[in-house]
Amino acid sequence: MRESKRKRLEAKGWRVGGTAEFLNLSPEEAAYVELKINLALKLREWRTRRQLTQGDLARLVKSSQSRVAKMEAGDPSVSLDLLVRTLLALGASSREIARTIAPPRRATAA
Amino acid sequence: MRESKRKRLEAKGWRVGGTAEFLNLSPEEAAYVELKINLALKLREWRTRRQLTQGDLARLVKSSQSRVAKMEAGDPSVSLDLLVRTLLALGASSREIARTIAPPRRATAA
DNA sequence: ATACTATATGTCATTATAGACATATCGTCA
DNA sequence: TGACGATATGTCTATAATGACATATAGTAT
Fold first, then answer.
1. Is the four-CA dihedral A24, A103, A12, A3 of positive or negative sign?
2. Does B4 map to a domain?
3. B107 at the A interface (CB within 8 A)?
4. Is residue A9 in a domain?
5. Is residue A33 one of the residues assigned to a domain?
6. What is the pTM of this model?
7. Which of A20, A81, B5, B52 is deepest in the core (most CB within 10 A)?
8. What's the longest Cα–Cα distance across chain B?
9. Other C-beta atoms lying within 10 Å of the C-beta of residue A101
């Protein structure tokens, strides 16, 4: 991506709720990493809900356990493409992905 | 990504409404390309709305005119990452991106 | 403690995507 | 017609992301 140094740092110190504005990120950079982190969290949620190990999922999407771990960790080396493709492979719909990226106003809440 | 041959074909013959199921794509592959195409269309919409040429936008996001053209054409060589980053750079919000990926139920409609 | 299973982390060679540049195509205006 | 501005398309080298593998670190049993 653009500057992998920064990314490396970002993804290290993240905290679940209200994620990444404590570093000197431009608004759109922050939005971008938040978006990725939300997808990452959702991915783990889906995988565990479906009772799959990282290895299982890796086989399912023809990747590797380590890459799945990195996806779920929001590692800067994983692309949106891979995250989205993997979520789709897990059965997520476009709408569910959209909701993950940004919940609609007044969501019914799970 | 996975099979660039296919992708090459996909992105060629696309039609705006109800996009890509006329090729032998798996459901999730289809969802993935639809998602990209929707973002591509939105990108052009935002750029033209803001009265920017592809060259202007390219400078804005430190890319090149040709890459912007490819983004808007849904070229398989452009990543979700680039599309999303560019939309964010144009001022789109996560919610707007989410709505582009999948409109919420019963949208108020523009 | 050891052994086993799941997950995390680091590295590497291969592959995909990047920006850049040339050039073709299109539209419009003189 | 030709010239100009915008967009499209093809190709290049450089860079980033990929799967694979090794290995470290939980966690949970016995």
1. negative
2. no
3. no
4. no
5. yes
6. 0.84
7. A20
8. 39
9. 25
- Condensed to tens digits (0 to 9), the pLDDT of residues B16-44 reads 344 444 557 788 899 999 999 999 999 99
Q: Chain B residues with CB inside 8 Å of A37's CB?
A: none
**Interchain pair A88, B28: CB under 8 A:** yes
A82 CA to C15 C1' in angstroms comes to 14
* Domain enclosing residue B52, as ranges: 27-101
Q: What one-character DSSP code corresponds to residue B69?
A: H
In this predicted structure, which of A45-54, B6-15, B65-74, B83-92 has the lowest mean pLDDT? B6-15
> Is A5 among the domain residues?
no
Nucleotides of C under 7 A from a protein CB: 5-11, 16-22
Task: Find the CATH number of the domain harbouring A39.
Answer: 1.10.260.40
Q: How many domains are contained in chain B?
A: 1
Q: Do A102 and B84 touch (CB under 8 A)?
A: no
Question: What is the distance between the alpha carbons of residues A55 and A74, in angstroms, rounded to a whole number?
Answer: 17
